[in-house]
Amino acid sequence: MTTSGTNLEHARAHNRRVVIEAIRLNGELTRAEIARLTSLTPQTVSNIATELEQVGILSSHLPRRAGGRGQPATPLTLNPDSAYSIGIHLDHQSLLVVLVDLTGQVRFRKLVHVQKPQPEPTLALIDHIQQEMRQQVKIDWRKILGVGVVMPGPFGVEGISSQGPTTLHGWDNVDIEARLSALTGWPVTLENDATVAAIGERFHGVARQLSSFVYLYIGTGLGAGIFTDGRIYTGHAHNAGEIGHMVVQPGGRDCYCGNKGCLERYVSLQAAYEACDLDPMTAMPEDLLNVDETQIESWLDTAVEPACQAINIMECVFDAQCVIIGGMMPQPLVEKLINRLTPLYNSVRSRYPKAARIRIGMSGSDTPALGAAALPIFDEFNPQYEVLLK
């Protein structure tokens, strides 16, 4: 995949992002390689690279490469200490806070188990954790880009946002972004879990080289993060991808949203807990690794058909390069699910029989928090063609 820049005189902000993105995707690049990959002129690349080196975002301390004629070229890499971001994941059982550098390395991690967290005690707990983080981690705190927060969606939907086991009760009217920004002094961005997992996968996982993909996020419920042409699609109220409430079995299992046969009643941690006789309000994802194999197979028997339907719909609607499946479900179980999903239904992706239509993404309890931490970095450095219109 290549990201093309533009040589318009007033497009410097966009071109800087393009250069950073090219280096991020490839690890290290010479100026000549950047020019070739981005379609920018060598002079434009040289000017931007010099500027980014001066402000510390890029580093040229790697050994020179021997090449053809002339002086050996010096590769450029991202300086991990040039920027940091914080990710916060809150659900009905746990609070996880991480601090990452520009390359995605975790510099701080704090997990606290909570039960049905309420706003005021939770905000006080986050404040306590950030003070602990400041004391333990020796970095330049002026380089924090912001805070990404992930919570279960959907947001602001009457009859759904505050009901059922997949949502957080009591948070309906809390301006989380404003409260946390006032508390920390940094800009705060709130997104649903599937969206931030997709961003995390785009930055650190198997989607690094993909421009259009759908990330099926298996959490307590089920959601989808959607990337189209290198940009995340969030929808009018940040609820795009709430496919968990897409009806796939008319007249099927009751869902708290009022419908019957919703997708997440079959494909989710909640559905797996029920099939394995675990209490959804106290069970943790890792508990599914200790149950009888016949119970897991029983869950898979009911999950495969709805999952195939969802993949077919996502492929036909978005024409994505692939569908990535991950989330908080333990990886061995995600692998079992993927192994059971063939043959898939024919869709617009069927014309590429050799291309992998399904890939396994990052999975485990840290996935949402790492995706949340990628939000400020994504906002600051991802190429955005809208800047050309400003």
Automatic annotation (TrEMBL):
<keyword id="KW-0119">Carbohydrate metabolism</keyword>
<protein>
    <submittedName>
        <fullName>ROK family transcriptional regulator</fullName>
    </submittedName>
</protein>
<dbReference type="InterPro" id="IPR043129">
    <property type="entry name" value="ATPase_NBD"/>
</dbReference>
<dbReference type="Pfam" id="PF00480">
    <property type="entry name" value="ROK"/>
</dbReference>
<dbReference type="InterPro" id="IPR049874">
    <property type="entry name" value="ROK_cs"/>
</dbReference>
<dbReference type="InterPro" id="IPR036388">
    <property type="entry name" value="WH-like_DNA-bd_sf"/>
</dbReference>
<dbReference type="InterPro" id="IPR036390">
    <property type="entry name" value="WH_DNA-bd_sf"/>
</dbReference>
<dbReference type="InterPro" id="IPR000600">
    <property type="entry name" value="ROK"/>
</dbReference>
<comment type="similarity">
    <text>Belongs to the ROK (NagC/XylR) family.</text>
</comment>
